[in-house]
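step: validate -> pass
step: tokenize input -> pass
step: predict -> running
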Amino acid sequence: MIHHGIHAALARERMSTFLAQAEADRLARRARRQARGRKVWLRDGSAVLIRPVRPADAGLLADGFAQPLRAVRLVAVPAACIPRRAAGSAR
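step: predict -> pass
step: emit ->
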């Protein structure tokens, strides 16, 4: 027969092993969920997937940064269209 102290120690060890495995499984599920991304809806009703950048995205990122954003083109105003300040006026 096993001494009750040994039996209790084995039960504690088994419990800590189960809890550690459960925590590892929970973290692995969270990592998989984050890697897949999550769908969000924009104000205009369109849906987009938010996910981490992957190595396969390198070409898309390079193309995106090579072209100026449409919003920037709309905001950019030629210097000739900006009114000049009168000489001596404070900035």
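step: describe -> The helical segments are 4-36, 58-66, 70-75.
step: cleanup -> pass
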